[in-house]
Design goal:
binds pyridoxal-5'-phosphate, 305 residues, four-stranded parallel sheet, 17% strand
Length: 305
Amino acid sequence: MPNSSTIANIQHLLNIVEPSPVQRLQLPEQPNILLDIKRDDRLHPVISGNKWRKLKYALVDAVENKVEHITSFGGGYSNHLHALAFACRQLSIPMTAIVRGDYSQNLTPMLTDILSWGSNIQYVDRKTYQMREDKNFVDSLLKQNANGVVIPEGGSQDSALRGISEIINELENSYDYIVAPVGSGGTLAGLIKGVSGSPTKILGVGVLKGQDYLEGLVTALLPNHGNFSQWQINHNYHFGGYAKSNEQLDDFCQRFHLQHEIQIEPVYSGKMFFATYDLIAKKHFPKNSRVLAIHTGGLQGKRVK
Ligand SMILES: *Cc1c(COP(=O)(O)O)cnc(C)c1O
């Protein structure tokens, strides 16, 4: 059991403000649906949303076990590496980011930040990157630093589910549906675990072309690989693939911001809110449903374009 003073200390060093607020959205054209947003985008300006939730207990473990190095993986635009590198700087833990592809001559804004926070970056080709879960490869990484740990891509590991399921514990109202975007599946798995035993259904919105693949990722993360039936992933709102967008989605994100004064981005939260609005308009949710959308943050990723 982690010590609560370790948690408070990390929250303080990182300047995280929990719990995140819940905000009601007005739907004048859909009076029979209640839509709330869990504003995890407000947890922190850099370690936004689900990346804090997913890393929380990995960081607690690292601090309690006096870990001296953290290695993790991601693409050149990774919100996960960005969040982890910021946290490692605040906690004075040296970090290595293993990045898919060579960006050394054209750094992305995220990689520039990561370097400025003192992390080391290793660029690897696709083939090497594919070995990121291979036990021998992970062992070879562990040998490079004394008392180090390796955190998987996206931070999606067992301890991530615990952090994510705290979203459910923080809720004051009950919901019929909880909607969230799906990338590497950890967030959805944590929500599914969090609502088990209640009638709440979890609806994931796939942000990449990943029918069956995404379901597999989620199932693999669930305790005992499943037997959780109240969830589903909708694959109709990926807009062509990961980080792909079009005018319709970009317009939606802009209008959403103007209307509600809540920023969203087209990679994750934009697709999730687009799907939620579209499904409400198409009467996917029965009359009088209470729906909660999780704003998973990720606004630093807006710099992609
Ligand atoms: C990483 C990320 C996700 C995807 O979460 P997974 O647990 O990888 O499925 C969703 N939203 C935002 C803003 C993210 O940065």
